[in-house]
Structures are given as C-alpha cells and as structure tokens.
Design brief:
The structure is a homodimer.
Chain A lengths: L4 H12 L12 E3 L3 E13 L8 H16 L14 H5 L2 E10 L8 H5 L10 E5 L6 E5 L2 H13 L1 E4 L2 E7 L1 E5 L5 E7 L7 H13 L4 E5 L14 H7 L9 H13 L3 E5 L17 E2 L6 H4 L7 E2 L4 H17 L4 E5 L5 H5 L2 H10 L3 H17 L4 E5 L1 H4 L10 E4 L6 H6 L3 E4 L2 H4 L25 H5 L9 H4 L2 E8 L9 H5 L4 H9 L5 H17 L10 H4 L10
Parallel strand pairs in A: 2-3, 3-5, 9-10, 9-18, 10-11, 11-14, 14-15, 15-16, 16-17, 17-18
Antiparallel strand pairs in A: 1-8, 2-7, 4-5, 4-8, 6-7, 12-13
Helix pairs in contact in A: 2-5, 6-8, 10-13
InterPro entries (chains A, B): Beta_hexosaminidase_sua/sub, GH, Glyco_hydro_20_cat, Hex-like_dom2, HEX_eukaryotic_N
Catalytic activity (chains A, B): Hydrolysis of terminal non-reducing N-acetyl-D-hexosamine residues in N-acetyl-beta-D-hexosaminides
Family (chains A, B): Belongs to the glycosyl hydrolase 20 family.
C-alpha cells in the first residue's frame, strides 16, 4: 500500500536543505553552488598583512574559530549523518585557508571598541567567499566587528564525518549585514543569582547567533548582587550571600568577554520601583520596604520603591547611577522605570511630606527624579533607556534620543512610536522566555502564570517588527530581544530555557522579518546541535527522528 | 508607615516552618520536639547485630546515607541560612549513631528483591526515632525496603552550618508507610535518547522522594534503542545510532541500580501502535510504515503499527515481548495499547487480506493479538499493564488483574474503575511534565501544545486520586506518576523539566491527598535545594528571597 515512502521523502529533503542553508541567522545575501571541499589538516585562518596592528581580540577570535572548526565535529542533520557526504567529500578538493582583510582605508580597531559604539554606528557588515576550486576563502569587512560576524558564519559552514572536516555547496558567496542594529538578550540576575561562568557561556551562545547586546538586569527588589564602588554596602547587605556578588573585576571580565564576542553590555539599574533591596543598606531611601500585603504595594514581593520626592534620595540615586555608569563602557544605560506603584507612595509619610513641602504632585516629583538621574548618566556619556511606562503612563520629560523598551504588550509599540521615541521590541507576548512555565507566587493552587501560554520559538520568529507603523515610525525600531526573568530560573535551567529559543529573535532582527517556520526549523536544529557540541545545553525541538528528516514532521507532511 | 514588617514576618515563619517539617514526602505520622543535636564527627550508621546476613544493597544504602549526611552541606532555608541555628547548635548534645534493626522474626532480604515484589506485597513501612538526649537514633522496619525508606527520611533531617552537621526538633518520632503502593515516574527514551548516566541520576532523585516505580517507555515509533536478545536487529537498525542503545548489560545495570534504591523497573513495549521503528528491521510486520500524510495514519510521525491481524506478526510480537520480559525482574510489564489508528489498517492490504481470510473484524483481531501477547508475558510471570484505550475504546478481553494507566484525561478514571480494573493515575491534565512547553510538529506558526497549559507542581499536588469514586472503586487506585514524553526533551533539560515538579506526585501518593500548596512550598524548596547539593539540577520555584522567607511571597501575604 505504501511503497517505500521513505525514499521518496529523502529525495525531497536533500533538495530542500543544503548545508549552507543551515546558517543562522540567514545571511541577507547568499549564493551557493554544489561542490564539496575538504578542510586540509593544516587549515589556517590568517589575518592579511594589509591589516596593520590587528587587535588582540581579533587574533583571539581567529583562534577560537579555528578551534570550533576542529572541535565542533557536527555530523550533518540527515539520516546517516555525515556518512551520506562521504563519497562527495572523498573526491573533493582541499581548502587550506581563510584570509581576513579589512576594506581599503579601514583601520583595525578592536572588536570590543567596535561593538561598544552607539548602536547606529556599529558596522557589522562582511563579505565571505569560499571558491569551489580550493583556492583560499576570503573574508572582508570594513571593521573588525564585521570580520568577527563573518568568522561566526564561516564556522557554521563546517561539518564533520569520520575524521574529515568539510564544507558543502561551494562556491559560496555571502554579503551580509543586519536588518536591525540592536539584537539583544536580557538576563535578570536578581531574582536568582547566576555565577560569572553562566553569563560567559550565555555570551558565547549569543555571539554564535550574532546577538550584539547583553541587557543585564543586574539588580532588583529581591537582591542587589552588584558591587558598586562607593556604594558597596548595597551588595554587602542586599546580595543573597557573599558569594552571590559581581565585583568590579567580575563586571570588567564580563564586559571584556562580551566585547571580544561583538557584544555590548547595557546595564540596568531599575528605578524608582524595583528597589526594595536598597532598603537593606539604606532604609531612609525606600518607601514601603517589605510592606504587607505586598500585592497592594508592588507587582512582586518584596515591596519597596525609592522615595522619588526626596531630594536626598534623588541625589543618592543619581550618584549610584553615575558610579554604575563608570563600570560599563556601553553608550546605553537602562534606568528602568516600570511598574511604579502609587499606593506605596500614598502610604509613605516621608514621601507625602516631601510632596507637601515642595508643592509637587507625584508625577511632577517623578519628572524631577527622572531628569536628575538621567542627567547623571548622560554626564557619563550614556544614552538613557527606559521601560515603556515612562512614556505611556507617566508624563516625564525625556531626552529625545531616549530608547524605549516595549514589554507589556506588542500592542503598545504603535503608541511609543507615535511619541517619536526609538524603541526596542521586548514584548511579553512574544519574547518573554519565562512565560508559560508556571506562576511562582505562593498560595496559588493551579499555579499558572500571568503571561501564559509558553512563547514558542515559532511565535517570536513570526513577529512583525513594523506592524501597524508608518514608514517614519518604522525607522524608530532599533531591533529587539528575548528576555529571561528568573523567578523560576537559575543556573540549573538557564541553557534549556533560553536555547535555541532566543536564536529566533536573533535571526528575526538580523535577517529581517517574514521568515517561514518550516524553512527555519531544520536550520534551528542545526543551531541547537552545534550549541551542544560547544557545551551549551540547547534543548531538542523535536524527536531526533524529525531533526534528521527536515519537513517530514510538519503538520502537513 | 510600615514599622519593621520584616521582623514580624520572621517571627511568624519560624513557627510555621521547623526543619523536621522539611521532610518530603511528609511522613504519615510525625512528632517533633525543639531540641537541637549535633552529629558527632564519628557519626555512624550501623546495622544491628540482630540482623542476620544483611544484604549488600543495605550496606551500600547505609554508606550512601552516611555520605549524604557528610556531603549535603545544606544550609537551612531561612534568612541567614544555618547561621541562625549556630547558638542552639553550639550548646547541643551530640548524636553519635543511628542503628538499624528489623522487627522480630523478619528476614533480611535484599532491598532490590523487596522493591521488585508485586506492588501490593511491598513493605515500605518504617519507624524512626531520634531521642533528644543524644542517645542513639533508631530505625526499625519489617523489611530492608522499609529501612531504606527510613534512611532516606533520616538524611532529610540533617542541616549544615560552618563545619557542623545537625538536626533540630528532637525528639523526633516518625511512623511512616505509604498511602499508595505505586508511586512512579515515566521516561520516554525513544523520541530522544538518554544515556544510562542520566537514567541513573534520575533514579537517584526518584529514590530521594520515595518514588518506587520507574516506568520505562523504552521504545516507540521514532527509535528502538533496546537491544533484545534474539531480536538484536531492532536496535541495530532502528536505534538513532550505535551509541544510542541500551544493551542487556545496560538494562541489568539500570535494574540493579534502581533495585538498590527501592525502585522497580517496569518496561513498556508499546503495541500494536507506536511501532513504526520495527519496520526498519521487519517491514513485513508493520502496516503503513512512514505513510504520508502521517497525521492520517498516526498521532505522531512516523506512522506505522504492527499488523495485528497477521498470525506471523502476532507470533513475532509475543516472542519479542517474552524476550524483553526476561530482561526485567519486575512483576509488571506494560504492553501499551494507546492511540491505535484504524485508517492505517483500513489502508493496509495485508491486514485487510488477513481479516478477510480469518473472517474477523479488526476489533476481534485486536482481541486475539492482545490475548496472545499478554499470554506470552504472563507465562514469564508478569502482570500486564495497559493504557486506558484498551479498556475504554476497545472491546478486548483482559486478565482481571491487568493494571490500567489513565492518561488521556483524569475524567476517564471513573470509567476505568467502573470496569473493575486496578488503575494508575497518569493523566495528561495533571501529570504530563512536557505539557505547555510548546508543540513540536513542524509548520505550526504559534507552536503551542495540545496539552497546554504547563502542569505546575501545584496542579498535580492538588489532585484528588479518588474523586467521584465509590469506596469500592477507590480501592482500585494503586497510585500514580508523573510522565516525561521527550519530543522536546533530552539530556539537556531532563533535570530541570522533571525536578522538583515530579516530587509533587511522590508526596501525593505517599502521604495521601489533601496537602496544602502553601504548607508544601517551603518543604519543596528544601527538596530542590538538597537535590542540587547532590548534583541534580532541580529548578528554582521562586526567587531565593522567597525561598528563604516561607509564606512571605504567598499571594495573600
């Protein structure tokens, strides 16, 4: 009745999924052929002599790419794995080198410094060519950051079988640059703490899919793990314990590790809400600290917000933000501004006294607080970044170049754009990695979460960044990011809850919208399997039977 | 405005969460005092001389418990961790030993043999006493299996601070035995493969919460990783690869590792559906193998079911099941029987010919197939276990002692009980660990799953095992289990997707229903934190801030 359906299906899949199509994010411009090339035993990646004073992080990136080429040992995701390529590869010419050069006139700055530029000044474009005749592959760019992106692409071209490392589909010509300048990932290290090693492993994985922004939500009401020079009492009194602290040298280590991987680190000190932890060291600055019932005074326990109407508190906060700003070379600094609770201030005698004595409303006081604190970070060379409430709920005067993170709902994007602010997509209905995993507040018998259901990779992948926007408004979209709030996460589930899901926004904002989930799935399997080869515990998206048979497990197959 | 709410809250929590209350599952009978005891440096667990010929697995369990007592080093989950106990502990008497004995007249069989008995013959009761005067603690039971359960409990009493291991709340008197004889966990090793080490680590974690049954869904349509003597072509042709195979010695290793931890291993060879993989070695036995569109012929790709109307296929299956039965000492054997697809047989010429030639309907042929295959395992001393469709959808004659797994919905429990079958709770609406994590078939733009939302620990914990049952029907409930289907799971997320969630059914079926999620949460944190100390990556259920402050993050707090 069903004569050899298997063979028919395999014939199909070989045409729909060629290896160079396993790149992620998909290059904007990709031409491939059908010739296999073996990488020679002495395969070498070299920086052209025309690149003067190549920076050390570029040398490190070259070494690391050479290492991936050798150690990934990824068998291609087809039935039989790499063995199906054995015949073609045995007859293939050998590729002995990849040479990196900068475009004429370009200067070799460090990858780090290129990555830490203002987002619109980052140059990530590159051109990668792998000829089919075995003559050297070439990678050119007008910045070391572009070269870094090209190296990442090159490492994804390589498969392994039975002692041989090879590339299929030469000649390959790729001309690539991102659709959006901001492609981020946010991690909350306050609800639960993550050791530096977990953050570094996450930065590695981010770099493999060309994410260029780490949004570090480092502190919150639950704990204050950041050791800030001049403000060390915060970490010593409000970190979970003395080992759950990021010292200035840890921060420098993370920033430099990120930079060398083409990633900028934007720190967030969320203010004036989400600051209960500060009360452990400075109760004088916090209204309604740990007040009960917490749900009256905050969206999450414990309650506690900066006394924004107090000039002393405003000064203290401005000083804190300036000190934190000095720790991070990024041009971006998030001051938060979400979920401000008015009951907290209404019930706080100090705040009420301050409002009366200055004759201000709470909103007017918030405006002063925001302007003062923003001024402090602007003085440190930062561009402020805020959560959407600061422009949609509060009537605060902000610098016109302030970046706005849209989180409550993607429905709010239009309103932010209409106000003329540049924005970053971070909406809970598409990009919250923690949604659907169960609610975490106690005494909740069913225990489901406010942002059910689970946000699948397909959901975020299908997001339209410019839906309902005019052409002018669309220009305000800087990009987007996945986010991990960690009420129910820690080092135990970091990799599996993030990867490969967060790769879906990485491609969306690099390659541009309109991708098809059926076409993307085989490539995303490749991302996950390669991540595992490199020590990141990315989950299975399907039974291995399906991963080896692209398209066959589609609903319609 | 909010005078020291912290202090008030702490005073409360100290009374609601004493350490001996951190046991999981909660003992059926627990009396505690308020005296601290330090474990002496030479603290020793000994088997009384009155126990003749103590088996080697009991000796091993004693050593392992001594090891946990030394290496858990779990700080108590309160603000300040173990340091809050330092004063009480510094003045405490010292406890130097725990002595195990069997009740008078009891014989010391191995834990393994006691665990592998028929479920209603397992004796897991024990009595544990820790006097407050520092005289020796005692553990008695009428079986080594009971002693094993008591050792598990003892290890949960122990906390650590600054070089000292201690117990609080002596005198402690525990008399304990399970409410239900079957407390299981099911793992699917076919959709994605799990190395033996992952299974062993899971068995460890299961034993720590007194789960006594490993339901091993070892093969399915996607892969056949079980090497069966006499049927080795199945694994060699239908395992994902040669390293993704459980050899007979792997099975013996797993069975013995489980047995020594008080866990019986019930294997499942799901028939006649879910058998596509067999077609790789024996296409003659499989109808509609990999037929397309798969959704017409199966609930999951790839399609393929045993030709149940063929006497040759029936004989082959009976032989296979008998051979598998010989590999597992358990009295239980699951033959599956779920999701039989009739389109597959309607479209299969061989099956239609067989039905015509024997003059049978498909249901009659299924009856013959089932009776023949069940007879084969009954001849090997097994009691058949089936999924619910075998009694609710099909009109199959089953032995009256057949156990039925209710999976489709907890609403089906009543109907199974009304038919007089013993049953195991395994319903997808309460106990499926994979639900809510996204759907996995391709070309599914939103990608959510059929059994959304996520099944939280609170949901399974609040399950009522005898809802709507008469007293007579309630006696048919043997227990229940969590289940992990692994379309989107693998070694990468095994620990975080299972733990501590699966501990919720472990307590439900040991301690009995009616537990309160608010009371349970602090104890479940203890489970998760202790698991981590022992190398199992159990996730955080709340921010650490909440874990250290029982009740404070409740919705109502």
């Amino acid at each position: 009745m069903f004569p050899k359906p298997t063979l028919i299906l395999f014939a199909t899949l070989l045409t729909v999924c060629s290896p160079a199509d396993a790149l992620w994010p998909q290059p904007r411009n990709l031409q491939t052929g059908s010739t296999a090339l073996r990488l020679s035993g002495g395969f070498d990646i070299t920086i052209s002599g025309s690149v003067h004073n190549a920076p050390s992080d570029l040398h490190a990136a070259v070494l690391s790419t050479q290492n991936f080429v050798k150690t990934d040992k990824l068998g291609r995701l087809v039935v039989g794995r790499g063995s199906v390529d054995a015949q073609a590869v045995s007859k293939a010419k050998s590729l002995s080198k990849l040479t990196l050069s900068l475009s004429q006139g370009a200067t070799a700055h460090s990858i780090t410094s290129e990555a830490q530029k203002a987002i619109e000044d980052r140059d990530e474009a590159y051109t990668l060519t792998v000829p089919s005749d075995g003559s050297g592959a070439t990678l050119t760019a007008s910045s070391t950051l572009g070269l870094y992106r090209g190296l990442t692409t090159f490492s994804q071209l390589v498969y392994y079988n039975d002692g041989t490392t090879y590339i299929l589909n030469a000649p390959i010509h790729i001309q690539d640059s991102p659709a959006y300048p901001y492609r981020g990932f946010m991690l909350d290290t306050s609800r639960n703490f993550f050791p530096v090693s977990d953050i570094k492993r996450t930065l590695d994985a981010m770099s493999w899919v060309k994410i260029n922004q780490f949004h570090w939500h480092v502190v919150d009401s639950q704990s204050f793990p950041l050791q800030v020079p001049g403000f060390t009492d915060l970490a010593s009194k409000a970190a979970y314990d003395s080992s759950s602290v990021y010292s200035p040298s840890d921060v420098a280590d993370i920033v430099s590790y990120a930079g060398a991987r083409g990633i900028d680190v934007m720190v967030e000190i969320d203010t004036p809400g989400h600051t209960s932890a500060i009360s452990k060291a400075h109760p004088e600055h916090i209204a309604c600290a740990e007040a009960t019932p917490w749900a009256t005074f905050a969206n999450e326990p414990p309650a506690g917000q900066l006394r924004l109407a107090s000039s002393e508190t405003t000064k203290y906060t401005a000083g804190l933000l300036a000190a934190v700003a000095k720790m991070f070379p990024s041009t971006l600094f998030s001051t938060g501004g979400d979920e401000l609770n008015t009951n907290c201030y209404a019930a706080d005698a100090n705040t009420q006294e301050d409002l009366v004595s200055t004759g201000q409303t709470l909103e007017q006081a918030l405006n002063v607080f925001t302007q003062t604190t923003h001024k402090a970070i602007i003085a440190e060379g930062k561009t402020p970044v805020v959560w959407e409430e600061m422009v949609l709920v509060h009537n605060v005067t902000l610098e016109s170049d302030t970046l706005v993170l849209v989180w409550i709902s993607s429905d709010d994007v239009k309103a932010v754009a209409e106000k003329g602010f540049k924005l970053i997509h971070a909406a809970s209905d598409y990009f919250y990695l923690d949604c659907g995993g169960g609610g975490w507040v106690g005494a909740n018998p069913d225990g489901n979460s406010w942002c059910d259901p689970f946000k699948t990779w397909q959901k975020s992948y299908s997001f339209d960044p410019t839906a309902n926007l005019t052409a002018a408004e669309a220009k305000l979209v800087m990009g987007g990011q996945h986010l991990l709030w960690t009420e129910q996460s820690g080092p135990q589930n970091l990799d599996p809850i993030v990867w490969p899901r967060a790769a879906s926004s990485a491609e969306l904002f690099w390659s541009g919208p309109g991708g098809n989930v059926s076409e993307a799935l085989p490539r995303l399997h490749d991302v996950a399997y390669r991540m595992r080869q490199r020590g990141v515990q990315a989950i299975s998206l399907q039974p291995e039977w399906c991963a080896l048979r692209p398209g066959v497990c589609d609903l319609t197959a």
